[in-house]
Prior knowledge:
By secondary structure, this protein is α/β, with parallel strands linked by helices. The protein is built from seven helices and five strands, in the order βββαβαβααααα. Strands 3-2-1-4-5 form a five-stranded mixed sheet.
Amino acid sequence: MTTDKIILGIDPGTNILGYGLIHIKxxxxxxxxxxxxxxxKIENHPLxxxxxxxxxxxxxxxxxxxxxSIEAPFFGKNVQSMLKLGRAQGVAIxxxxxxxxxxxxxxPKKIKQSITGNGNAxxxxxxxxxxxxxxxxxxxxxxxxxDGLAAAVCHYFQRTPExxxxxxxxxxxxxxxxxxxxx
Length: 183
């Protein structure tokens, strides 16, 4: 069976939302694009949510992803921040649902673990691993873009037949076990 699908990954945020799109062709993973939606200049929270919804729908309509992978809000010290993140995530999910796109949610720790092999990896470590996996040179200005991309790649790793039959601690472990895979 040949796989051909596009995955949209989102790192929700109410100041900066990161996103990335990947294309899976067979067992080859390709970067389509990544970017950020900057919202820090918008004072009104409901207007930020509308922008998130509109941009997510725009990405879906333009790139036609088959699935959406989104980072789950994590519980920090500030409950208000978590509530705002949850709303941002919910609006992005609603945008995908409005276009009948299946959604999968992953914890930040799960995403980092799947990309780097370390659930406590820094944003810089995640970006560095994605650069080597997807062969891009420039680190984006905002690492939220690579965080969105990481959500998409994590979903790919969770869904591929190679990784559903056996569990891997990260990309390095997968490559060590599958040295002839075309990436």
